[in-house]
Amino acid sequence: xxxxxxxxxxxxxxxxxxxxxxxxxxxxxxxxxxxxxxxxxxxxxxxxxxxxxxxxxxxxxxxxxxxxxxxxxxxxxxxxxxxxxxxxxxxxxxxxxxxxxxxxxxxxxxxxxxxxxxxxxxxxxxxxxxxxxxxxxxxxxxxxxxxxxxxxxxx
Length: 155
What we know:
This protein has helices at 13-40, 46-69, 82-109, 114-136, 143-154. It is mainly alpha-helical. The protein is globular, with a radius of gyration of 23 Å. The N and C termini lie far apart (79 Å). The model has no long low-confidence stretch (mean pLDDT 87).
């Protein structure tokens, strides 16, 4: 009767089992790589989390400026170019390498402030870029922020 339609379709055992094994492998590899990255960067703390979030928001907002608003300062037309997007990703990767080096300096010197200082410096730079992207999108920014951006551009 109708109760037969409520039963899930049976899948072959090897298909389900193979899927579980594949999922476990993917989770294990992802966990291993994530742990390796966190260890290399000196732990997964607020500084690293904030830096990763700021870097992602900066990349995303910069891409929106180029793709949607066509106001990118990177190209003559202001439009998106994949080569500049790739360069942006490589810069973000280099930031993480500098944090890794700063962490190694902390370990070598027996201190714990070099990595955090590097993170704060890059966080400040990312925040300025995010704010600049917001301005390029036409968001009204307080005068104090636009003055600070102009001062930093001149330097």
